[in-house]
Amino acid sequence: MSRRLIAHVHVDGVAYGPDDEIPARVLRRIGDHAFADPDQDDAADTGDGDQGDSGGSGGGDGSPPRSGRGSGVEAWREFAEQHDVEVPAGATRDDIIAACEAAELVEREE
Hints:
single chain; two-stranded antiparallel ribbon
């Protein structure tokens, strides 16, 4: 495994810890902040407190919010680009969100 979690995280009700193998589809949903910096030893390890799905004003997957402040097309375009999701230049916010859902980066809203 090339990346190591610094703490336990929960994705879709499943807990993953620093020593667990994480499926690729789940790795895409965990923000970079949850992984140890490979250039530093475990000095930055914060223990084993849960990071969970309670990150910021966006989704627990590190995505921008779907409404309100920070939910615009540019925020979603940046999120998609960070996760290698291709979106056309003229795509709307809803188009980008749909592409992120199709790539299983974010959960579909019902």
